[in-house]
Amino acid sequence: MLDAIPTEPRRLESYVAGRWQAGTGEGQVVTDAATGDPVARVDATGIDMGEMLRHGREVGGSRLREMTTHQRAMMMKRIGLALMERKEELYAISTATGATRSDGWIDIEGGIGTMLSYASKGRRELPNAHVIPDGPPEILSKDGSFIGQHILMPLEGVAIHINAFNFPVWGMLEKLAPTWLAGMPAIVKPASQTSYLTEACVRLMLETGELPEGALQLICGRTGDLLDRVTCQDVVTFTGSAATARKLRNTPAIIENAVRFTAEADSLNACILGSDATPDSPEFELFVKEVHREMTAKAGQKCTAIRRAILPRALVEPAVEALRARIEKTVIGHPADKETRMGALASTDQVEEVRRAVEAIGAEARVAIAPGSVPEKGAFVAPCVLVCDDPLTAKAPHEIEAFGPVCTLMPYDSLDEAIEIANRGAGSLVASVFTDDTEVAKTLGRGIAKLHGRVLFGNRLSAKTSTGHGSPLPQMVHGGPGRAGGGEELGGMRAVKHFMQRTALQGTPDQLTAVIGQWMPGAARRETEVHPFRRSLAELEIGDTIVTPARKVTLEDIEHFANFTGDTFYAHMDEDAAARNPFFEGRVAHGYLIVSFAAGLFVQPDEGPVLANYGVDSLRFMTPVNAGDSLRVQLTAKQINPRETDDYGEVRWDCTVLRDDAEVVAQYDVLTLVAKQQRDL
């Protein structure tokens, strides 16, 4: 079991090439944000960064790449569930970072939830394979003998994650999730101020025994010459200040080797109250509530926190008074106390940085709500609200981020002004718009989207279900252009692909089928005596095909289908009307009649390994079918996708419906669930 934070500083260790190792230098003492007491000593002097990279590349990477995407996803699920079982150990340590229980929930359970979400998305959205097709095949020759296909495969380097102090658990797990799902090992370097919590979480993950050797390494302290050793197969991610991001981005090895570098940096996020709001409207209340919450959650030390609150000029003073009422009820104190609603900043150094930033912003703004009293010990700062009366000419409020419980109100006189003010942030992670007017939402949304990674709209209808301004979600992009760094740390499969190489394959269909492990259009088909539906996953092979007998479509079939289903669209029922249609020469068969007849032709009806049909993908009707036409089906096993924890898997079949054995009239993928082994019947 992990113990709570000790009263005497403990020397943190780095996890290097499969062993825990302490630094050999004096290091840096980090303190409890709420009490100022020493917590840990942080030092990585003497750590061999070259050994870490070699171990990750040669051991961790190879072992992760031996696993399929679903195996890696299941590994992440087991780790996430194990962390959830021991979350209280992390909560006990988290208070030293200045986080209240609710702050810790964002960091700890939010991080674990992100990993579990990626584990689920990986199993749902990616094939259980080593090679991931990216998009459909491209037919590059008239006869189909030369085709192209983009694929994704893991980079064969190490992902180096340099993280910020404000979310020592979430900041690590939200990056590890897409990294591991992609098949890359990682080296995590947390910010020193809160690295003791990151180290504790790493120890818990390693104790699960789920991680392949080399998949995760940890640096507690400085990175030394680590970034001087990166290659084109490595990835570097950074969360922190824009100034540090620029410095790291210009590391010679990163530039010379075209190393993938992504940053999530300073962000002067905006919240806009629509021009339709009034002081007694629900949207005004939501706006004030959100600004207050983003000022006080994590003591305002969130990369997504609202720094600029933009609102109609007439509503500035009502907003100040509404914020004052909320701030006066906000209890500031030790984060472990149940009555506390706002804890401390992460370190005493941060207190001075916030004060300097407020002073600089105050040169072009007035203090509307001055900071109140706070506990003497610890890194406490009370909320501060400023008002910049002329935000279109001011500079400091759009350039300086006070990384704490500070927000500047900015009035506008038109929606165009509101857009210009928001965009003065020069690139932000998120903006929110509170309005009940769809035209206002359209104008503001289209006006600010280009300079914001995410735009959240809020009103009375979504008030109970919205995740709010400051909550990054694993399904949605977390990142932003310009000042915000240009990265996309989250965003579903977008983030996973950042750790994979996209390669364009070109060749014959048979060659690409062999490389990818998925049947390509034009590749060889194997017609067998045994119907493919009689084969289990253990027996079925890519390319197994059935070519069905033909079935003639009659006018009686068309009329029966129309009357039976109720689809009496004129093109099926009225010869003259159908002939006037530019696509038809006369009455035609229903598209779904064609699909139904196709199923009747290729399905083997007996009980067997095929368990269910669960859908079709990419259905297209290519050519009209008239009464008298004969239809035949080619059904080919295209992709076999076994499920890791079930006794069945998914088979994707290429279904081609032909008219008179030559012309393609319909093309689609049929999806079935098939037993892994023959069933005892």
Automatic annotation (TrEMBL):
Transmembrane segments: none
Nucleotide-binding is among the record's keywords: no
Pfam families on file: Aldedh (PF00171), MaoC_dehydratas (PF01575)
InterPro entries, A to Z: Ald_DH/histidinol_DH (IPR016161), Ald_DH_C (IPR016163), Ald_DH_N (IPR016162), Aldehyde_DH_dom (IPR015590), HotDog_dom_sf (IPR029069), MaoC-like_dom (IPR002539), PaaN-DH (IPR011966)
Domain Aldehyde dehydrogenase, first and last residues per copy: 21-456
Keywords on record: Oxidoreductase
Keyword Protein biosynthesis attached: no
Superkingdom in the source lineage: Bacteria
GO MF annotation terms: oxidoreductase activity, acting on the aldehyde or oxo group of donors, NAD or NADP as acceptor
UniProt domain MaoC-like: residue ranges: 542-648
Annotated protein name in UniProt: Phenylacetic acid degradation bifunctional protein PaaZ
